[in-house]
Specification:
4-stranded antiparallel sheet; alpha/beta; about 325 residues; binds adenosine-5'-triphosphate
């Protein structure tokens, strides 16, 4: 085990309601995404960001930044902010995906899953290699467009327009989106008053409303109840049936097994396994268990319990606040 491995977070979750569920096999079409020797690099300034990335096992190196003379002149006298380092978050990943595939991405925290999705969506430029996409990736585009200070109602319109729907089409889909997200009258309140689960569900509902060619889901499903998961699963099947492709990043291995036909396993920025869902999921589960023989250390278990308790408390407070706001909004409308 390397030093980085010892620090890793192993959020391997099993959702009882997903166990035994399987994604439907569909006929696969032509390739719709080719990722070829993809490298993605972040530039970070200062020691803290560097340490954080090193702890997660990413390849980090300090670089000398050569500023042009005039820039140095303009910056003279400014506070020194620390050394510049490069975090090599995705390192030489290649794979091809076909229309109709549902691809899960697994890996411990910091293994590069989200960075890779962002690169596929065109939000992170590759340092080296290329991404060829036929079709329009959704979700991340919607994430970028939404505004927390505006109501869910306004955001549904903005997100819908960002996906290429007309205002009339967004109007027609409005009720369906609200119902799918399960947010009720909260839709008339600013999104910043939502709990993180409500926000994630609304983003997922908007992003999947336009039958996207490539639907990307980064943990959104983990935030819903069983009924929301069921709705999400049928939405994923719908996208695949229309020859679309689904990417799902989740720490819940049972959700991946229930919703995907193929899995990519990433570790320290590299693709270590790519294959049929059960083959990769079994290998990944074995790896995670091998990293913590005899289960978690008591300290780690206590740390997780403390974190969960704090999160539950914060969520409860947030829900109470949102409920009060909702009441206020309902009174104002009456
Ligand atoms: N904006 C950023 N600036 C600098 N480094 C980053 C940034 N985002 C991610 N990283 C680093 O890149 C590496 C990969 O992170 P990424 O978030 O892609 O992993 P992940 O597998 O999605 O993790 P998680 O499961 O925790 O969401 C990590 O070392 C992380 O610290």
């Amino acid at each position: 085990m390397t030093e980085a491995d010892e620090h890793m977070d192993f959020d391997l979750e099993i959702e009882p309601e997903d166990e035994g569920e399987e994604a439907l096999e569909t006929d696969l079409g032509d390739p719709c995404l080719v990722v070829d020797d993809l490298h993605v690099v972040y530039r970070v300034i200062g020691g803290r960001a560097r340490k954080e990335a090193e702890k997660k096992g990413s390849e980090v190196r300090e670089i000398k930044v050569k500023e042009p003379f005039f820039k140095r002149l303009l910056q003279s006298g400014r506070q020194h902010v620390g050394a510049v380092s490069e975090v090599h978050a995705v390192r030489g990943v290649s794979f091809t995906v076909r229309h109709g595939e549902s691809v899960g991405i697994v890996g411990v925290n910091g293994s590069g899953k989200s960075t890779m999705l962002r690169a596929i969506a065109g939000l992170m430029p590759p340092k080296h290699g290329s991404v060829h996409v036929s079709g329009e990736p959704s979700l991340l585009g919607v994430n970028a467009a939404l505004m927390p200070q505006l109501s869910g109602e306004r955001n549904i319109m903005i997100g819908g327009l960002a996906l290429g729907l007309t205002p009339k089409e967004v109007d027609e889909k409005f009720d369906e989106v609200v119902e799918f997200a399960g947010i009720g009258d909260f839709v008339y309140l600013p999104m910043k008053t939502y709990s993180s689960g409500m926000g994630a569900r609304l983003r997922f509902a908007i992003s999947s409303a336009a039958s996207p060619d490539i639907l990307m889901i980064d943990e959104a499903l983990a935030t819903g109840d069983a009924a929301f998961k069921e709705r999400s699963k049928s939405r994923i099947e719908e996208v695949r049936a229309n020859a679309g492709t689904v990417f799902l990043v989740s720490h819940s291995i049972s959700t991946i097994e229930a919703m995907c036909t193929r899995v990519l396993w990433m570790h320290q920025g590299q693709l270590v396994m790519d294959g049929p869902v059960h083959e990769v999921a079994d290998a990944y589960k074995k790896f995670v268990r091998a990293q913590r023989p005899g289960g978690m250390t008591p300290a780690r278990r206590r740390a997780i319990q403390r974190k969960r308790a704090a999160e539950a408390k914060a969520a409860e407070a947030e829900a109470k606040k949102a409920e009060a706001e909702q009441k206020k909004a309902a009174e104002a409308r009456a």
